[in-house]
Amino acid sequence: MSKVFVFAEHKNGTLKRGAMELLQAAQKSGNTVIGMVVGTGAEKAATEMGYHGAQEVHVIKDSNLDAYNPELYLSALSSVLEKTQPQILLASATSTAKDLFPRIAAHLKTGVVSDCVELSISGDSITAKKPMYSGKAFAIANFENSPLKIVLMRANQLPVAAADTSKTMVLVEHALTKPDLKTVIKEIVKGASEKLDLTEANIIISGGRGLKEAGNFKLLNELADVLGATVGASRAVVDAGWVSHGMQVGQTGKTVAPTLYIAVGVSGAIQHLAGMSGSKVIVAINNDPGAPIFQKATYGIVGDLFDVIPKLTEEFKKVLKH
Amino acid sequence: MKIFVCIKQVPDTETKIKINPDATSIDTTGIKWVINPYDEYAVEEAIKYREANASAGAQVFVLSVGPSKRVSEALRTALAMGADEGIVINAPEDIDCYSTARALAEVIKSEKDTGLIFTGKLAIDDNASSVSQMLGEFLGIPHATVVSKFAWSPEGVSVERDIEGGAKEIINMTAPAIIGANKGLNTPRYASLPGIMKAKKKVLKEIEFASLNIPATDIKVKYSQLSLPAEKPSVKMLMGDSAHQVAELVQLLRDEAKVL
Ligand SMILES: Cc1cc2nc3c(=O)[nH]c(=O)nc-3n(C[C@H](O)[C@H](O)[C@H](O)COP(=O)(O)OP(=O)(O)OC[C@H]3O[C@@H](n4cnc5c(N)ncnc54)[C@H](O)[C@@H]3O)c2cc1C
Ligand SMILES: Nc1ncnc2c1ncn2[C@@H]1O[C@H](COP(=O)(O)O)[C@@H](O)[C@H]1O
């Protein structure tokens, strides 16, 4: 039987949703599911991985792995991969994974495909669908000459089954061999937002120049609080300095694919659409019926956002209470 | 000291994508080719560094892998921005990230006195964000990607890397190192007219990909079944006054789209 290896990220021992999605997909493939998780809290996360279908989970609890260092992670991962010899590796396309796995692929002389939105596993082979040309096309990636096929999936693309707490896994602990480091992480500066990152958020509310000034983003923050959403922005307002660059959606910002994307006072320039057109449901609120954003939207409201948004916040409050 | 900047030539962001009948590539007729936007930040940072450290006598080399006739244009543009020399690695259209990184590594290895290597964080055509890290591995030097701040000292390189939630990692690396540029690193200059004139006289060396002896087994990923995004059903516009629009929207999101 083939082995599918899932590398999971966690927050204080709680698995990220993306990892649960991948465990579910790995399990469905009928292959042996091997997990790996590192850092403080890894053991708790490993138990959760078991609930979601991992049969065997490799952990390195070393707190040196709490922050991402490419060299330490390369050393940790490659030693476990050498021991377990899987044919397929799945991880969520986070900023850590996207940085790390191409380096691991080069190290293991194998292939990697990042930012995938669909995958199909059959035995030891896997194909994955991914966006190209800023989402203006999709392609199927096929591996060749790759002893290990590495696929990085975007979050929120696959279903997650409820945790089955009757399931157990075999825990395998390893120690970290620390190589001579050329890279040192001096500091991690926290972002302004405690909310889920745009790339992980299930609901995103984005504001554009239609908001008129920075202070008016408070309208969107209020709506976001009610919905548990993350606030994003167009480049125009990032360039104007109203909000930070980390909030920019689009070709030179983040690519997102939430379940619900609400664009408020955003015209829908092609570079903005490049970052969000993969969203499942798109709502556009704009006072110009000719705004291009309406062509990509599922639902459209032509109206003044300063009138619509407060009413929408109230309406959601009413409905979500029940 | 030599500073290398790897640049990829990609279709302009406004390009309308058409797919070839065999669905393994796009129809390139009429496409306007540009330097990958993130690679412009990489070129700018390299030139800025050279200018700020004139006494160090650094030289900026721009490299590109691809069909030589086409990618030479991108290299000329980078030379017009102020890079010193260009190297084109004449390669077929469809080699993957792994082979591209192998080729870049072979060429950079053959040069002496490499101080820094700049790349973009991502090429907007294949959306791979892989070549920089692979190049780092093949050269055995550290890398950092998604970099929005860079400083150099003889002891090494200090960078800020953008991660989730607006957070940043502050990283020190020994030199030589690879820096994958993000937006925000700088504001790339335009090629001036005198710059364009000067660029015509700058050296643009050509190396054949085939001469680098990279085996065919170094192709690890191939793309097929290219498709355009599925057409969304046309938008449902909500009518009436705003109170009515809002009530209908919330009802549709809950009962029709089922996303609440
Ligand atoms: C190389 C390149 C890369 C780029 N990358 C990105 C990127 O990553 N992300 C990005 O977003 N852009 C990007 N852009 C910029 C993009 O082309 C647009 O300029 C930008 O998206 C416009 O932002 P906007 O929609 O907020 O502003 P505008 O286009 O000015 O739109 C504002 C909208 O608000 C509406 N409006 C005004 N008042 C109200 C009101 N009271 N109520 C309701 N609606 C109102 C208007 O009708 C209008 O449609 C890029 C451009 C280039 C050239
Ligand atoms: N064909 C190429 N020639 C030169 N540099 C490249 C090439 N492909 C990718 N790169 C560099 O690697 C970065 C990341 O590209 P990618 O891994 O394709 O997303 C780009 O921003 C370039 O700096």
**Quaternary structure annotation:** heterodimer
Unreliable segments of 5+ consecutive residues of chain B: none
Shape estimate of chain A: elongated
How many beta-strand elements of chain B?
13
Query: What gap, in angstroms, lies between the N and C termini of chain A?
Result: 48 Å
Instruction: Specify the helix fraction band of chain A.
Output: 25-40%
Largest interface: A-B, 96 and 84 residues
Main β-sheet of chain B, in a few words? 9 strands, mixed
Order of strands across the biggest sheet of chain B? 9-8-7-10-6-1-4-5-11
Distance between the termini of chain B: 57 Å
Which outline of chain B best applies? globular
Element-level helix/strand string of chain A: EEEHEHEHEHEEEEEEEEHEHEHEHEH
What distinguishing features does this structure have?
heterodimer; A: 322 residues; alpha/beta; seven-stranded parallel β-sheet; five-stranded parallel β-sheet; 29% strand; elongated; B: 260 residues; two-stranded antiparallel sheet; 28% helix; binds flavin-adenine dinucleotide; binds adenosine monophosphate
Describe the secondary-structure layout.
The complex is a heterodimer of chains A (322) and B (260).
Chain A: E1 3-7, E2 10-11, E3 14-15, H1 17-28, E4 32-38, H2 42-51, E5 56-60, H3 70-84, E6 88-92, H4 95-107, E7 111-116, E8 118-122, E9 125-132, E10 137-143, E11 149-153, E12 170-173, E13 183-189, E14 203-207, H5 217-227, E15 230-233, H6 235-239, E16 260-264, H7 270-276, E17 281-286, H8 293-296, E18 299-302, H9 305-321
Parallel strand pairs in A: 1-4, 1-6, 4-5, 5-12, 6-11, 7-11, 14-15, 14-16, 16-17, 17-18
Antiparallel strand pairs in A: 2-3, 8-9, 9-10
Helix pairs in contact in A: 3-4, 5-9
Chain B: E1 2-6, E2 9-11, E3 33-35, H1 37-52, E4 59-66, H2 68-81, E5 85-90, H3 97-109, E6 114-120, H4 131-139, E7 143-153, E8 156-162, E9 168-173, E10 177-181, H5 193-199, E11 204-208, E12 221-227, E13 236-237, H6 242-255
Parallel strand pairs in B: 1-4, 1-6, 4-5, 5-11, 6-10, 7-10
Antiparallel strand pairs in B: 2-3, 7-8, 8-9
Helix pairs in contact in B: 2-5, 3-4
